């Protein structure tokens, strides 16, 4: 069956985007709230304490999903930036802009929860471990990206320049990720939720973690739609303002 | 393009001390460090590779906004963009001129400053080699950052926020080479990685920078 790609792009037409998000947003919001609460409540209150880490293991339900989102949101921004460069789709550029602040918050959550967990477990809030350092660098990339958006008045220029920065920044973010491996050996445990790993986290922790991750994804979708709607409205206001000034 | 290169170098030499500024900053930074951490020779010798690399990085950063800002203000960047040479080539030449006027003096001065910091004698060779290989990457990455911020009124601070995270891989490998050199270990791997970053930056970033300049001139 041939997919009609034109029909697909039509969903991102600003007016149509506003129309369908207006209807879809409440569902996403309710679903996000439900899934996130059930995942966290399940994780916090209905899983046993770990035999070595005690109750501190439960911060894992905030730490892992937020860390995953922090990386995936940057990837989403990369895709949105590419779509903007190739197709000049305004909604795409605005979605990338709205995602940046959420991604930065996720990075901060991951860093803070990690620090809180690290104090009793590793005996330190901060360690120059490759994973921790990569996240700090990721935070810097988010900051630079957002600062560039703020600094440029013309929205199209800002979209163009931030897209280029996002592309170049992605390459350097990946480079930094592997460069820090070179620079210091890690204290952080390896990936414990991979599909292909031999030893994973036990199922009692694994299922609530999955629900929490789904909750974080839904939360992100809700927030990014909401913020993109705000950006579109701000752009419309700006256009109205300009038109009125031109008439005077 | 060759003429553009000489023009940039001549301008850097003549326009009111812009040339020596980075070098002076490097010297001051290296002088300040012992005041901050104490004159203990062993400690200084241990942190010397990192200080020298961070100093070179910051000294490079200082003169980045001069790459395009002056030409943008007086309109010569518009002329260069419409000239019958590719804008990518213009960017590459200007970044190269920036390296000659900022990076190369740093490379030459670094051993003398290493002496001040009691750098291990085995490390001098690697300090020069790694700075020689790494500083072109600093200039080209910096030219990209300068191109992003060229049209902005208060671009200076933003420029450092954008460019410094991009410098991290270069810094890691550069300082690692010197540290390993000081310890008498093999330096091949980090050196090769750093050379790879430099070559990649020189080959690809002029395109990104030229794209950013076209947007800024639109």
TrEMBL record, chain A:
Membrane topology: Multi-pass membrane protein
Protein name as it appears in the record: Heme exporter protein C
Record bears the keyword NAD: no
Name of the coding gene: ccmC
Annotated compartments: Cell inner membrane; Membrane
Function, in words: Required for the export of heme to the periplasm for the biogenesis of c-type cytochromes.
Chief location bin: membrane
Gene Ontology cellular-component terms listed: plasma membrane
UniProt cross-references to PANTHER family, sorted A to Z: CYTOCHROME B_B6 PROTEIN-RELATED, HEME EXPORTER PROTEIN C
Cytochrome c assembly protein domain segment(s): 28-188
The keyword Translocase appears for this protein: no
GO biological process: cytochrome complex assembly
Keywords, ordered alphabetically: Cell inner membrane, Cell membrane, Cytochrome c-type biogenesis, Membrane, Transmembrane, Transmembrane helix, Transport
Family: Belongs to the CcmC/CycZ/HelC family.
Annotated GO MF terms: heme binding; heme transmembrane transporter activity
Transmembrane segments: 24-46, 66-86, 98-117, 132-152, 164-184, 204-226
Residue ranges of coiled coil: none
Any single Pfam family the record assigns to this protein: Cytochrom_C_asm
NCBIfam families: ccmC
Automatic annotation (TrEMBL), chain B:
Protein's membrane topology: Multi-pass membrane protein
PANTHER family for this protein: CYTOCHROME C BIOGENESIS B-RELATED, HEME EXPORTER PROTEIN B
Superkingdom assignment: Bacteria
UniProt GO MF annotations: heme transmembrane transporter activity
The protein's name: Heme exporter protein B
Function field: Required for the export of heme to the periplasm for the biogenesis of c-type cytochromes.
Transmembrane segments: 12-37, 43-64, 96-117, 123-150, 157-175, 195-217
Broad class of where this protein is predominantly found: membrane
Subcellular location field: Cell inner membrane
Cellular component GO terms held in the UniProt record: plasma membrane
Keywords from the named record: Cell inner membrane, Cell membrane, Cytochrome c-type biogenesis, Membrane, Transmembrane, Transmembrane helix, Transport
Origin species: Celeribacter ethanolicus
Family: Belongs to the CcmB/CycW/HelB family.
Keyword Hydrolase: no
